[in-house]
User: Fold Dipeptidyl-peptidase from Dyella tabacisoli.
Amino acid sequence: MRLKTLLIPAAVAMACPATVLADEGMWMPSQLPTIGKQLREAGYLGDPADLADLTKPPLSAVVKVGGATGAFVSNEGLVLTNHHVAFGVIQYNSNAQRDLIENGYVAADRTQELPANPDFRLRVTTGFDKVTDQVLADTHGKTGRAFYDAVDAAGKQLVADCEREPGMRCSLVNMFYGSDYYLVKQLELRDVRLVYAPPRAIGNYGDEVDNFVWPRHSGDFTVLRAYVGPDGKPAAYAKENKPYTPPAHLQVASEGVKQGDFVMLAGYPGVTYRHRTAAEFADQIEWRLPTTVAVLKQLQGVIEAGGERDHAASIRYAAQLQSLKNSIKRFSGELEGLQRSDAVTTRREDETAVLDWLRHQPDSQHEQAAIEQAALLIAAGKDARDRDLLLGLLGPQSQLMRAALMIERLDVERAKPDAARETGYQQRDEELLASQLRQISRRYDPTMEKALLTALLHRYQQLPAAQHVPEFDEVFGRTPAALSSALDSIYAATRMGDEAERLRLFKASQEVLRSSDDALLLAARKLQPALLRMDEQRKAREGDLLRLRPSYMKALMAYRQTQGGAVYPDANSTLRVSYGKVTPLIARDAVTYGPLTSVVGIVEKNTGKPPFDAPQPLLAAIHKGDFGRYIDPVSKTMPVNFLSNLDTTGGNSGSPVLNARGELVGLNFDSNWEAVSASWMYDPRYKRAIHVDMRYMRWLMDKVYPAPQLLKELGVP
Amino acid sequence: MRLKTLLIPAAVAMACPATVLADEGMWMPSQLPTIGKQLREAGYLGDPADLADLTKPPLSAVVKVGGATGAFVSNEGLVLTNHHVAFGVIQYNSNAQRDLIENGYVAADRTQELPANPDFRLRVTTGFDKVTDQVLADTHGKTGRAFYDAVDAAGKQLVADCEREPGMRCSLVNMFYGSDYYLVKQLELRDVRLVYAPPRAIGNYGDEVDNFVWPRHSGDFTVLRAYVGPDGKPAAYAKENKPYTPPAHLQVASEGVKQGDFVMLAGYPGVTYRHRTAAEFADQIEWRLPTTVAVLKQLQGVIEAGGERDHAASIRYAAQLQSLKNSIKRFSGELEGLQRSDAVTTRREDETAVLDWLRHQPDSQHEQAAIEQAALLIAAGKDARDRDLLLGLLGPQSQLMRAALMIERLDVERAKPDAARETGYQQRDEELLASQLRQISRRYDPTMEKALLTALLHRYQQLPAAQHVPEFDEVFGRTPAALSSALDSIYAATRMGDEAERLRLFKASQEVLRSSDDALLLAARKLQPALLRMDEQRKAREGDLLRLRPSYMKALMAYRQTQGGAVYPDANSTLRVSYGKVTPLIARDAVTYGPLTSVVGIVEKNTGKPPFDAPQPLLAAIHKGDFGRYIDPVSKTMPVNFLSNLDTTGGNSGSPVLNARGELVGLNFDSNWEAVSASWMYDPRYKRAIHVDMRYMRWLMDKVYPAPQLLKELGVP
Assistant:
């Protein structure tokens, strides 16, 4: 791989080098007026100032749906999102007699709209206030753990105050790595209903085979409707509830897109690492990704080998195996992409330019020192990174061990006032923790769990002495033989495999808990001090990084300003806007992927077997060729998906894609394989987002699985 | 697959339907003046009349190299052909000390040019005469076997007369399925030398992984030189030989190609089936290809299973296994392509149009009757096709059995006058037959041979009684148990595994041979009458088809003429010219392959391991970016390969690709996977040919592995 990045000479470099920042950016709405000139030059026809407040129209039409995005498309609460985002709702309403996954669903009228699973949530952002001063008020002069605690306490207080208003869910987010803090306030709608879903073979055409693939041919959309109580306030499902009137809704465009068209997108991207340091980029490429992939591949091997021997166990671990495979695929893709884009060089050159510039600024010694300290702290993180990676996987990759560690930790936290408890272990979290304990029975097998722990702890045993933790060595021994014997003893003498016993321990008082002689619980108790100590160290480090990183971010922003540019914060599940254009992808030498697919591709891919088993009504409609007003004037056929260079990441699923007039032209649902590394670096040569074409959705609702009342409500002919 | 072909509605059909005949055609040079208007309209700037005689310049520069093509590129006998065509020459000159395969070769001067393997031949066509009247002179009133024999005898006589001239190799070819016959006369050059070859990792970059693949990045070329004796006549290698002065040589173009440019190609395509009947198309798709693939896959399984048990045997059968895999891949691709193009429908519609037209022509009853008879004869071929396929594979898929059958057949043929002997069993063929007998020892294992024969004969035993042959049933029994016992007895009691014994039997008189009690020889002798009988039937059928098929071909040609078109004959290893343009490939919905690749792709594909292990000097030269005059003005980098819609098939390897002025711009070396079915049907959507760009060859000879004297001889700066 070195070859690839080193040997591309200037003479053969792409027309569009990786350092060009065109169309990159997940902008906070409040930043849009600042970059209004670029936005208008890119083709936006509206006034960027109108986009500045995400709690006001039109952006207030964009809502959070689960961990993803959706948008209101009527003033009676209709929400458009992805089929895969609403999949739980479809699944919840399906059974052997009425398989909505397989057949899709068209609610004939409002009475036919089906309630979502009770834990399904839709969140409308109603407040987004900068609270930096409040959050940092008590941090002055503090460092490390104290700094962390001051931020944590202030944040928890702000959230608790905010959530006093009924129906609200609040959270504290930090922007630019601690430079700024915002309090996000969201109206939580709990009665959401299924209105329209295409069959699986349309909504998820191509499934895993086509996942991350362009060209794509998926009708990945679903229509929901939000309801509120008769008083207009959020309420659980009740027959007498009425449709919610959203603060805004989007208009469907009358025309479709073509290559080169301006498009923009608003949504809730989850997490990116674009402003990490060059050293962190190098660490990700040289150590974290390859090491993680190697460890996860070993765990995959363990589950596969165990499944060969025991079919019942293979079923219990199917989801864990699938998740490992997904992670391996994604991390491998990220590694490949970062190498392909030569991300470290690009990042290092930019960082050097920023620091060079800073050195020439007056009175910048303090900032320079902070940046240097942050760099030292980051470098020091390497000392125990192998251990932290392996021990960090013990919980997530086990079932009973995780349960024991959680019960013991909860015991520690319950002794504190609720506000001082660890995030995730507060009273508001206990219901979720209990439900996790219940799910274990369907996912646990003692032989498999021991094998997985053995794989991780063998690796741990081979680490240099400096990385060893006395408590772990005591519990699991220092040799493979000791480990094997320890695990056998622990799992032979635990009753936690029994659900009732787990829940009993979960609910038990400290006194009852401490009197238990359960071997696994005892082991977890012995490990607890080490875990708390490691947690302490992590928080102290995080506190210092929150304190120190803003110096670099500020320098970066000031430097960019001298270049006439602006800096967007890394993604953190808050509403962001991205703009760009409908763009082909030059995937490799002499291979170009066009930016629009059509129903021709559905027929080409169709084998009649899942995942390429388009339903007969769709095939018949394609065969008939009655595409009416939805036909693409360029290809003369029916468009299905399109590709843009919009800046997206996980969480952007279901984001509305808008044209230059702010009208709805599509629905974001995936990105391409080459763009997996975009969480670290936006490479304009490869970063693409994949959208369902609004024309395809309208055609399906008009001609294939008709829902005329819905089209009427959407305000389209 | 039905779905794919049935459901593409008119509204989504490609811009370029399969029935359009644009750029299709492997034209006989004599036809070019006839289609001169189209040729000029396509962009050819020369006079089509100048291309009419393949024995005169410029086409006399195009020569046959082994089973493929090459071209003279200097007046001192330099020949440009593919690396894979000249591979035997490179291999012959390689050894552990001097590995020319790995390192390539640049002859510093003429004294360094290395002699080819003694059986390597280069053929210059010096005569191409229509001899239809002579060949058919004795056929009048005859049918079946008699018709066949009359043609066969006349042809053998013409060839024998022609070959009386020293240094000449002659052959009879038939055009338009017996409508016309030509006597081809070729000067056979026997002293050919290696002048320039790139390393394997350039000449065969991508190897099997990239075989049939576009985009491609291979420098698949080699330069040879033809020598003659001091008297100017063909001679075996001798130090005092001198370079041959060819009748013509091609000029290298000063500029390269770009998308849309006119290109043409001349070469020796092997065999096509474009003018077979619709019924034969259907048979190929519905029976022959799937059945053959199933049988060959079973044989592949036999060899793989045998190789698992016995490593030594797996080595002996590696080549046979490779060949089976290639055939399976090719046949599967052919099937896929014919289905994708819906070849039967296209062919049937055209055939119906021709026959409809014929019915309306006066005095066409005789032609119509002949066409009907041919159709009946073709349909009758289905009666024993399963048997013929299986028994036809007994020889080619065995070693010792093939040897025994050949020796017995030779015994039959030797009793006849040489001119009356079966083709392939004449005196001129005996040297080749003996060398085949010698090679058996390296490719034979008794257990494996028995297993292969068992697979074929099991299938034969399951055929309906009507397809059974008494002699085969007698020798091999009618049940699997009898077969097993028969094969065990035969192979336990044969001495033919010994090379000396095989050669003794090969040379033995009839008397000696008949007295042999070798079990395998005895079995072959028992089968012989059946094989001769089946041969008789085949020849009788072929005789009638040669007699009857011309009626359809004549109708087709007359019909095309009414449409302003012309008909080219199916390929038969004679010189043909094809013209078209540099063309991208729309492989599927939203996927376009550009028509030129560049060195960027070499770096992208390079893994450092075979087959993607570009040599350091190449990588360094790419890195340096010194592409000089060879740079592509569009991509601003170094072109490597290009794609055209030229009509090619096996045998066209090494064909020179010329521009509108008839100058050399590239070298044909492969076609794309989607075009495997082109031997039956040219589908303009998918048929592409892959060429090495002349600029890449020149750059390699100029900057990477320099050979300035060669560039000088080629007449380029």
